[in-house]
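Suppose you are handed a protein chain with no further information: no name, no annotation, nothing but its sequence. What can you learn? This example shows the usual starting point.
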Amino acid sequence: MQQSLSRGSDPLMLRGSLIVLRRKCGKASCRCCEGAPHETAALSFSVGGTTQILTLRAEDVREVRVALSRYRRSLLALDRQALAGIAMLRRRLDADRAKRRGARQ
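A reasonable first move is to predict its three-dimensional structure. Written in structure tokens, the prediction is:
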């Protein structure tokens, strides 16, 4: 039974990119010596300006993909909220300027 990566009721959220690592193992008798290299899914992410990579098990790829998507959606929602806040501040400042101009005349 696969254990979920989520903690309690908090859905898993991940920042980074899902990548595929391709490599040759070095065994002379392996198919990768002359054919396709071995492939492993991995999560690539940056911490403090340093790229880090976590290799994944095949059964974790779907959950990681969903968690990455959840992060991107949350980031877009946060950006929309911040832009709405800027628009509201701009309207308020414009209204204050208009009042001051009207009071001077």
